[in-house]
Amino acid sequence: MSYQTQDRYTVAAQEDRCAPRTKLTIPGQLRASGGRAFQTVVHDLSISGFSAAAINRMHEGQMCWLTLPGLESLQAQVVWWENCMVGCAFSELLSPIVHDNILARYSGEGAYRPY
């Protein structure tokens, strides 16, 4: 992402979301509607969405499914895609218990806050 786009996303991720995003690294699989699943790495997560690596082009509004280790597939909708990164909003908020469990297993830096 360009610096300006990244900066706008960072601000929006904190202001327009119902929960702070947490920086982490989680291996998983991502599958767009009508497509095949591919390997991905989730880079940030909140109860309302995530951003992840996406080598396949994804389009705003497209439905997708994220599968993380030990969890069932989570349905989401693409909000943006740029330079092989995708931002998605979950169709249903993650349970706080599930969210906290994921953070306990994969979090390295804690809640992401812009400087």
Describe the protein.
The chain has about 120 residues and is an alpha+beta fold. It has one domain (about 5-110): Thrombin, subunit H (Beta Barrel), CATH 2.40.10. It has two helices and seven strands; from the N terminus they run αββββββαβ. Strands 1-2-3-6-5-4 form a six-stranded antiparallel beta barrel. The chain is globular and about 30 Å long. The protein starts with a helix and ends with a strand.
- What assembly state would you assign to the polypeptide chains in this entry? single chain
- Kindly report the name of the CATH homologous superfamily: predicted glycosyltransferase like domains
Total of DSSP H or I helical runs spanning 4+ residues:
2
Supply Rg: 13 Å
Low-confidence segments, given as residue ranges, are 9-15, 110-115
Helical proportion, percent range: 10-25%
Spell out the blueprint of helices and strands.
Blueprint: H1 3-15, E1 22-32, E2 38-45, E3 49-53, E4 63-67, E5 74-82, E6 85-90, H2 96-106, E7 107-111
Antiparallel strand pairs: 1-2, 1-4, 1-7, 2-3, 3-6, 4-5, 5-6
